[in-house]
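Morning run. Coffee first, then this:
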Amino acid sequence: EIERVRARGWADAEGEMEDGLNGAAAPVRDHQGACVAALSVSAPEYRLPRQKLAALGERVRAAADRISAQLGHLPAGPGGTG
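And here it is:
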């Protein structure tokens, strides 16, 4: 699971914290690459079914990347960890 999350840059949760609640989250990194925050979005399963998690996860990751860039983070090159 951790390798999958690392590879795509975001994590999902399907009812893990509370039944019927789904969400996606991505790290916000500072200029040194340290994770200083996380951006997450969650919603009831009837509004955010499993089929929509991947699209949401990509949008959350993109938003977290934009925030990270404002903090001076430079994305890693090929094979890097970000």
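Residues 2-70 form a domain with the Beta-Lactamase fold (CATH 3.30.450.40). Good start to the day.
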